[in-house]
Every structure is written in C-alpha cells, then in structure tokens.
Specification:
Strand order of the largest sheet: 1-3-2
Oligomer: single chain
Number of strands: 3
Order of helices and strands: HHHHEHHHEE
Largest sheet: 3 strands, antiparallel
Structural class: mainly alpha
Radius of gyration: 16 Å
Shape: globular
Number of helices: 7
Number of domains: 1
Length: 155
C-alpha cells in the first residue's frame, strides 16, 4: 500500500489536490510488493503477478457490487453517450479528473454509499469517480485502455 500512498502524494505535490487521496488506479502498483508477501503453490510458479492482479480486480468488482449494486449510475454513464471518454491516471490530479468528468448528477449519493457522506474534498470525489469507472469496466459496462500510466474509459 505504500506505493499507492506515494503516487497519491506525487499527484498532490503540485498543490492541485488539497489532501492526497489514494485512488483505485493506484492499486495495480501494489502487485509487485504483494508478490514477496504471499506464498504460492509450486504449481503456480511464474504466474504470481497474474494471480495477484486477478485477485485485485476481483476484490474491486466485489466491493463495487456490494457498495454500489443497484445504484443509479446514469449521471456518469451519460458522459459516454455519443462516443465520450474519460481519461484518468496516476498523475492526473483530482481537480483535473473532476474537470475532465464535468458535473455528475447523483455523485453525492454514490459518495454516501461509499462511506464518504459529508466529505466534499476534490480528492475524495475523484476517488469515487475513478472507483465507479473501474467498477463499470469490471462489470463490462465500459471498456478501458491503459498506456504509459494513463487510463481511458469509454463505451
């Protein structure tokens, strides 16, 4: 988890994020760290990164379903009508991600379901949006392209 915190701190280093907040896009960086902390069967040798990445995706998807299953995502999904896309990434500040996303009807209700009720920081709003985008990708409502630390979500 330390790498996620470092990425969040780097994002906030330019002063654009009020308080550094780790986001779901920071999590793949923990896979190499976990590799030395988890014991694998001999038959799984050489597949450690693949297995850990799968478990991470599964945990995100299950958390998405348990926290946001049945939630109204139409406000965010409307951003993808007519071929729209949203680009995020390790060094995309919260302010920039919120600017790229624009106003999201229903975001306050989504944040409340994620336990962020009453918090209004840009970092937490960006974390909620990125979590929803990744969740929608994992349940196959969006597609995702990742290259050079940049992630683009689209339909």
């Amino acid at each position: 988890m330390r790498r996620s915190a470092l990425v969040a701190e780097a994002r906030g280093a330019d002063g654009s994020d009020e308080v550094p907040v780790a986001r779901v896009g920071d999590l793949p960086g923990i896979v190499p760290t976990l590799r030395g902390k988890v014991e694998f069967e001999v038959s799984e040798e050489g597949r450690e990164d693949e297995i850990l990445s799968h478990l991470l995706r599964r945990a995100i998807a299950e958390t998405f379903r348990s926290r946001l299953g049945g939630a109204d995502m139409s406000g965010l999904l409307a951003k993808f009508e007519d071929g729209g896309s949203i680009e995020s990434g390790e060094l995309v500040s919260a302010t920039e991600l919120l600017r790229r996303t624009g106003e999201v009807p229903g975001l306050a209700r989504i944040m409340a379901r994620l336990g962020m009720e009453g918090r209004e920081s840009f970092g937490e709003a960006a974390a909620a949006i990125e979590f929803v985008l990744e969740g929608l990708y994992l349940i196959r409502r969006l597609s995702k392209d990742t290259s050079d630390g940049t992630t683009t979500y689209r339909t």
